[in-house]
Amino acid sequence: MYAQMMQQPLLISSLLTHAERHHGDREVVSRRVEGDIHRCTYRELGQRARRLANALQAMDIGFGERVATLAWNGYRHLELYYAVSGSGAVLHTLNPRLHPDQVVWIADHAEDQVLFFDLSFLPLIEAIAPRVKTIKAFVAMTDRALMPAKSAVKNLLCYEDLVDAHDSDFTWPRFDEYSASSLCYTSGTTGNPKGVLYSHRSTLLHTFAAALPDGLSCSARDTVLPVVPMFHVNAWGLPYVACMVGAKLVFPGPFLDGKSLHELFEAEGVTVSAGVPTVWQGLLAHVEAHDLGFSTMRRTIIGGSACPPSMMRAFQERHDVQVLHAWGMTEISPLGTACTLKPAQLALPPEERLAAQSKQGRVVFGVDMKIVGDDGAELPWDGQASGELLVRGPWVVASYFKGEGGDPLIDGWFPTGDVATIDADGFMQITDRAKDVIKSGGEWIGSIDLENIALAHPAVAMAACIAAKHPKWDERPLLVVVKKPDAQVTRQDLLGFYEGRIARWWTPDDVVFVDAIPLGATGKVQKNKLREQFQDHVLPTA
Ligand code: ADP
């Protein structure tokens, strides 16, 4: 027997319509590429998004066709999020930190029709424009006065001209909620990048879950500043969450240094922020060097790579900002787990509580997870057994765009490529990425633990632990370290620092000091590059 409830498709446009109608005066504040601060309300943003939707229609963008962006976090990018998906086309957020060859490859693979870009990316656009195969027009996200006087780019249009040329009389179309809404490519640290094609339904369900108190916990009383880029898994869904709950949104544009971020946090009364650990490192260094604090910030969401306990301590103990450690990936929209504590963990002594918080956390409702051994058999949730993490749920990828890489699922589960433990309370902890695991004498050593210990040393700015070849053990851990400016520390000091903090056989065999550790387009350490760099490293224990 069928139920008798309304059949209303879950569509992205409804989020903006809701924000406009119920939180119309709430502000969206952006630091623009030009450096100035721009303010508008959800009401104005809604109107402009509808004008833009009319412009897209006039440009002949059909249902399901891809519209690309190369843009920082800002109000125009947000307008595109809604105008493109809302009108039935697919928003494809390109990552401007990729090599131009990769951008061309991805744009061709996605068959992008139009590309909207922030002016700071004009040189990149000029490099790729003659090479991309399907893009008909390039739209500079600026007003007429700032349009480049001369550019080699053919079909260069002005964003504000497009908005001005159309009125806001546009009715968001109603269609199947399983229709594609947006497209993100994985960063492709191994092999070609693969596209993950989200649907309106998956995005809406993800938004409901992300907004929950034990998810990213956002409300109408919050002012949210996503540092995580809108070109990186939809800024972890925050542009959708903010509209659903009516939070004020603050966008930092390209200014992601500690000083600029801190100024914006304070000036706009930001209560919640989100980003990868490398961004927070810069912010904390600035705040500490200038003896500053946070007067409104209550919480920061940290994910993308493991948040070292030393960073958690700095935020929570020195600045009274709670850290919410979260885990996810492009393939899961991205939220999988968030580390909000249960009463039992809240009651623990401070050190144990910190240890609990350092885990990647519990699944948000909608995601199911398990860990499996090499034979595929499920492992116990005892906090000890570690194996590959598999997930499933309505916002988890079922297959990659254009079927790239074949069927990724194993019996209906998506293998994440992460190695993890799960404890009896359901708290998951990533010990490593499968491809970064160090295998010593057949036993796995988790590099994240080793890095976290090094990062707790006062002289260490950055640390990465990789496998180095060993004649007896096959692989042994090699610690690669960037020192803090003017800090004095020796190899012996650091090796001694591991004593009593970890099983002796996990202690790295060697330490090398470098000026910089290579970071990828999403701010993560590129361990494959480090392994290449140190492939001939001879360990003193060899
Ligand atoms: P890519 O896989 O292309 O780097 P993603 O942004 O999708 O891009 O990265 C997802 C991966 O990032 C996860 O599989 C995991 O390895 C890592 N990751 C994300 N959040 C965390 C976290 N809180 N702790 C440890 N690793 C994390």
TrEMBL record:
InterPro entries documented for this protein: AMP-bd_C, AMP-bd_C_sf, AMP-binding_CS, AMP-dep_synth/lig_dom, ANL_N_sf
UniProt KW Metal-binding keyword: no
UniProt GO molecular function: ligase activity
Domain of life according to the entry: Bacteria
Keyword terms of this UniProt record: Fatty acid metabolism, Ligase, Lipid metabolism
Residue stretches making up the AMP-binding enzyme C-terminal domain: 450-524
Domain AMP-dependent synthetase/ligase: 18-401
Keyword check for Lipid metabolism: yes
Family: Belongs to the ATP-dependent AMP-binding enzyme family.
Name of the molecule in the record: Fatty-acid--CoA ligase
Organism: Pseudaquabacterium terrae
